[in-house]
Amino acid sequence: MLQNRFGKLAAAALAGSMLMGAAACGGSEEPATSATAAAPSDGASSAAPAAAGAKVGLAYDIGGRGDQSFNDAAAAGLDKAKSELGLAETKELEAGNGETEAAKEERLRLLADGGYNPIIAIGFAYSGSLKKVAAEFPDIKFAIVDDADATGPNISNLLFAEHEGSFLVGAAAALKSKKGHVGFIGGVQVPLINKFEAGFAAGAKAVKADIKIESKYLSQPPDFTGFADPAKGKTAAEGMFDAGADVVYQAAGGSGSGVFEAAKAANGLAIGVDSDQAKTAAADLQGVIMTSMLKKVDVAVFDFLKSFADNTVKAGTTSYDLKAGGVDYSTTGGQVDDIKAKLDEFKQKIISGEITVPDKTS
C-alpha cells in the first residue's frame, strides 16, 4: 500500500502514485530561516561531501506531491536540498485514503530496507508507524512533521505554531469582511487542525469582538478523507456563504480547492493555508484567495536535511513559530496591502509576547 513485505509495498506505492491532490502547505514568499534550526547553507561546497552519499526517503500525507499545499511545501524543501546539497538519490511515496496503520509502517520499512537515510514522514498520521519503524532501524535518522508523540533517539519532531499564523489571517478576515461574518473549514477534527481554528477565531475577535464565526470539519477521525475531498469542501463553504459569511478560511488540505470554487461562485473571499495558494491554486481561482496562512514546511524539511548533511541532526522537537519565521501570512495579489500595517502590528505583539494566541478552541 501481497504475500511478502515487498509485494505489499510495491502495490501500496503504485496505488499511492495514482492519487491526485487538489489544493491545501507550501513555499514562502521569501526564503525564511528558522531561529531554532540550522540556517540555510551559503554554498553547497561544505555540505556536498556529507550529503553526496545520502539517499533521502520521503513519505507524503494524503494527496502527495501536487496537492498545492502541505505536501507540496515538503516537496519544495526536498527539491531545494537536491539542488543545494547534492543528494545522491531520493524516493517519494504517497499515502492512500483510508489506509491502515500497517500500510504506513510498510511504506516506511520499504524506505528503510532500501537503504534510505534519512527518512521524513509528512504529517501526524505517521506518528505510531514511525515510532515503531524507527525503533527497528536505530541507525537511520527519521523526522516527522506535525507530531510530538513519536519520540526516540533517532527521531526529529518538526513542529509549527499554526495558531499564531492563523491569528493573523483571522484578523485579516475580520478587517476585510463587510458583513461581520466569517467561516472556518477544517479537514479533519483533530487537535492539530483545532489549532488553526483557535488562532483564526482569536484573530478575528481581536479586530471585532462580536464577529460571527462559523466552523465546520469535513470528517472525523479515523476518517481522514476530509483532507482530500474537494466536493465536501465546496458544499461546506457554499453553506457558509449562503448563510451570510463573506470570507472563509480553509485548513483542509486537498479539499481546499472546493472552498475556493464556492468563494468564486458566491463572489466571496477565501483564505488559503500552508502554501501561498494565490500562486499554487488553479489560475481561475487564485483571485478569490485574499491571503494564505504560510506554514513553511519547506524550510523545516530543508533544515533537517541540511543538519543531516552537516552531521548535526538532533532528536526531539524543533519549533517553527512566528518569531522564527516558521509561519506568516502571504501578500500575493495585493488584496491585504491596505491592512498590512495592522497585521504587522499584530505580528509584532505576538512575537513580543504582548499577545498570547490560544492553541485550543476550548
UniProtKB/TrEMBL annotation:
Which regions form coiled coils? none
Q: Which GO terms describe its cellular component?
A: plasma membrane
The record's annotation in InterPro entries points to: BMP_lipoprotein, PnrA-like
Q: Which Gene3D superfamilies match?
A: 3.40.50.2300
Keyword annotations of the record: Cell membrane, Lipoprotein, Membrane, Signal
Residues annotated as signal peptide: 1-23
ABC transporter substrate-binding protein PnrA-like domain: which residues? Answer: 61-360
Protein's cellular compartments:
Cell membrane
PANTHER family per UniProt: ABC TRANSPORTER GUANOSINE-BINDING PROTEIN NUPN (PTHR34296:SF2), TRANSCRIPTIONAL ACTIVATOR PROTEIN MED (PTHR34296)
**What protein is this chain from?**
Nucleoside-binding protein
Q: From which organism does this entry originate?
A: Streptosporangium subroseum
